[in-house]
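Entry for nicotinamide-adenine-dinucleotide complex. Fields follow.
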Amino acid sequence: MKTYTIALLPGDGIGKEVVPAAVRVLESAAQGFILSFTPFEWGCEYYLRAGQMMPADGLDQLRPFDAILLGAIGHPSVPDHISLRELLLRIRFEFDLYVNLRPVEILPGLQSPLRWKKPEDIHMLFVRENTEGEYAGLGGRFKRGTADEVALQETIFTRKGTERVIRYAFEQARKRPRKRLASVTKSNAMQHAMVMWDDVFSEVARNFPDVETARYHVDAAAARMITAPESLDVVVASNLFADILTDLGGALQGSLGLAASANLNPVARLGPPVFEPVHGSAPDIEGRGVANPIAAIWAASLMLEHLGEAETAARILTALHNVTREGHVRTPDLGGNNTTEEFAAAVIAKIQTAAAAS
Ligand code: NAD
Ligand code: IPM
Ligand code: MN
């Protein structure tokens, strides 16, 4: 039987709670293929023991897997700029996972805090540039700790990097009913990088005459997400802009615990794709077993879809939607009092009922 090898990187905090929940859902749904999971205990606890976020050959260990399912990295015991850069960002950069796909949708039965909008008004797909921009990591601190200190954080935009992510976004827009693509810019203030971004967007647009385009400065885009979310379909943005706007997207969905993402390289394989929630390790609620596992379960479904198991991916989403639609089982972030485990069990029960009926 076809076997997919999955590296599990639960990481830190609630990552260690939501990934096992998603794995149980995956195991209950897998039909006609085998998922072979290998856990990796890399994260901040590992760092405190080993002095590094992963072994020196960590990326080589991950490379052969078909996919990575990641929870969240980061803990107050280790500076974020070390933990995130040495693990999560390294994987994204060194495997050249240049597309970060982040759907923003209202799940059945749930309500957006935008009470005056209908659920169908909020249906966006963010395509986040994931390998350069503000995250490039080049720079330094000069005369550290003195009154004359200088800190440089270089932003890198390459034509190749900009072009490939914008092209991918156009391809996604073309596949959707509304065929709209909005580009997020800030060319009124950033006269080099963002003007090139705009130029490349216009150039690529010529190859997609069937896609309706718009261009918004990032500040206006943030406001538009609240005032007119129905005007947004696919949205393409640089690394930092999309990072910020997709937490706003999670909030629009009703909780950060709902927002899922896929890190992909649709063209070349330098390593496996990574599927993860948008949220972090949530130290404020870790260890209580109440984290919402929806983002992780949704990310797991995106993973199956990407592996070519669209039918099982859809069965998981249907089961998830049936649980949210009924509204009996909800974690505290959605106003309920159920646990992570109880929510996952409810999804598994729906999967089993559907399997028994078919
Ligand atoms: P966060 O996303 O962890 O938490 C923000 C808020 O949302 C918190 O109040 C948290 O309780 C809530 N929340 C998040 N996910 C939830 C869920 N599944 N269910 C219920 N509530 C949820 O953001 P933060 O507090 O800024 O960051 C905490 C740590 O996580 C930091 O170390 C940060 O760098 C890291 N981080 C990691 C990732 C990642 O690994 N992909 C992403 C974001 C932040
Ligand atoms: C995300 C996270 C990461 C990012 C951080 C933790 C480095 O916020 O995946 O959205 O900014 O990309
Ligand atoms: Mn983020």
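NOTE: The longest helix spans residues 340-357.
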